[in-house]
Amino acid sequence: MKTLVFDMDGTIANLYGVRNWLDKIQAEDPTPYAIAKPLYDMFMLNAILWTLKNDGWRIVVTTWLAKNATPVYDAKVRTAKRAWLDRYDFPFDELHMVKYGTTKANCTRHLGGYQILVDDNEDVRNGWSLGDTINANENILQALSKLIEQ
Fold it and tell me: The pTM is what?
């Protein structure tokens, strides 16, 4: 089985482009997660992802919750992130919203097979042990389109 594992913040959602995002998160305001704009044309990204799904790829979202957050805030962030994915019709088969710093490979290891992590965090990509990575600081549409051609 082939799996694409997507991070959200800084990868598909422009959390860091939200005005005062860090102050709001530290104040346990979930608004930045709800109002972040997509980093890509979601119609184009979703078309690529549906093509890959039809070619047998599984799509997983594995995203961290806020650093040092309370359980109440974690719940609010989970709601906001799920609503964001729904609003943009992001086609995922599995969703993991986990504590900040969780090893992302541990969330999808059970799926086995070849897995590609799409993430903006270099440390997270360097720690990925289940296949390859795509640097989300570059154009992920190009990298994903190459998977279709293979």
Answer: 0.96
